């Protein structure tokens, strides 16, 4: 059956909970949440747990995460009583074949993200019609025009971004109002938290994602692409860059 590539004609003015309620009502088909259990993830996880606690929550353990993230994931999942948490990991055989020493990220970070994230998530999303992401516009230029609902043209999957227009103050206020635990690395200057070898703290005034792949052109995970290419820093200032072409089935996934 051909993939649905039609635009999603849904109200853009609903608040985050309204967007989530609609997404989880069944009206959009089978929807999962994908969470990194990162710096601000607990807010959206809390909303999902309140609205539809049986929602499948997918967590990609790349086997390169900070121990703090793994501990935080366990703490939050228990606190929110997530009943369908799906912890997914890279295929051991593929890891052995392509990154036996765990150093692929040094030479080929796109290939590493593909191996440890994109392929894994692609498999986990089989059977779903869409997924909820925690992306927000304030997180950087690559996300500045984010809408609450998107349809990935390559895969036909719906991406739901309930917090697209939330800023950091609003997120912190929600977390504090609901007494939700912060990620332990936030207090150490991490504002966006991915794999340990590719994440560093950010200074005041820096883009919140400046600590991801610092010093490289790469600014988005391999599962977050645009027009079929991994987004590069220069793509956002109008300069020509070829990017990295991905196989069709891997395009359009989100970090
Ligand atoms: S963030 Fe770094 S370590 Fe993690 S999958 Fe991507 S390149 Fe590999």
Automatic annotation (TrEMBL):
- Pathway this chain belongs to: Sulfur metabolism; hydrogen sulfide biosynthesis; sulfite from sulfate
Q: Which UniProt keywords apply?
A: Cytoplasm, Iron, Iron-sulfur, Metal-binding, Oxidoreductase
Give the cofactors, semicolon-separated: [4Fe-4S] cluster
* An individual GO BP term: hydrogen sulfide biosynthetic process
Q: What is its EC number?
A: 1.8.4.10
All residue ranges annotated as the Phosphoadenosine phosphosulphate reductase domain in the record: 31-201
In this chain, [4Fe-4S] cluster is annotated as bound at: 112-113, 195, 198
Active-site residues from the entry: 221 (nucleophile)
Q: Where in the cell is it found?
A: Cytoplasm
Pfam families in the cross-refs = PAPS_reduct
The protein's annotated catalytic reaction(s) are: [thioredoxin]-disulfide + sulfite + AMP + 2 H(+) = adenosine 5'-phosphosulfate + [thioredoxin]-dithiol
Which Gene Ontology CC terms are recorded? cytoplasm
| GO molecular-function term, one example from the UniProt record | metal ion binding
Q: What is its main location?
A: cytoplasm
Instruction: Give the top-level enzyme category.
Output: oxidoreductase
Question: Which protein family is it in?
Answer: Belongs to the PAPS reductase family. CysH subfamily.
Q: What does this protein do?
A: Catalyzes the formation of sulfite from adenosine 5'-phosphosulfate (APS) using thioredoxin as an electron donor.
Put simply, this protein is called Adenosine 5'-phosphosulfate reductase
Natural source organism: Pararhodobacter oceanensis
Lineage, uppermost ranks: Bacteria, Pseudomonadati, Pseudomonadota, Alphaproteobacteria, Rhodobacterales
């Amino acid at each position: 059956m051909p993939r649905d590539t039609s635009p999603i004609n849904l109200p853009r003015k609903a608040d985050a909970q309204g967007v989530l309620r609609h997404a989880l009502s069944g009206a959009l088909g089978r929807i999962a949440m994908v969470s990194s259990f990162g710096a601000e993830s607990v807010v959206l996880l809390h909303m999902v747990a309140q609205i539809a606690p049986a929602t499948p929550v997918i967590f990609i353990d790349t086997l390169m995460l900070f121990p703090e993230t793994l501990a935080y994931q366990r703490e939050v999942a228990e606190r929110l009583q997530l009943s369908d948490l799906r912890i997914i990991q890279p295929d051991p055989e593929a890891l052995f074949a392509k990154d036996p020493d765990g150093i692929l990220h040094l030479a080929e970070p796109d290939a590493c993200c593909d191996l440890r994230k994109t392929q894994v998530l692609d498999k986990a999303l089989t059977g779903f019609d869409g997924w909820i992401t925690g992306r927000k516009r304030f997180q950087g230029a690559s996300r500045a025009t984010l809408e609450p609902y998107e349809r990935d043209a390559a895969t036909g999957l719906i991406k739901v971004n309930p917090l697209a227009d939330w800023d950091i103050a609003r997120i912190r206020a929600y977390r504090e109002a609901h007494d939700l635990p912060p990620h332990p690395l936030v207090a150490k200057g991490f504002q966006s938290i991915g794999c340990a070898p590719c994440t560093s703290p950010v200074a005041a005034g820096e883009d919140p994602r400046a600590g991801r792949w610092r010093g490289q052109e790469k600014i988005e995970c391999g599962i977050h692409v645009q027009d079929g290419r991994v987004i590069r820093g220069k793509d956002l200032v109008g300069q020509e860059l070829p990017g990295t072409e991905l196989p069709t089935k891997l395009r359009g996934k989100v970090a």
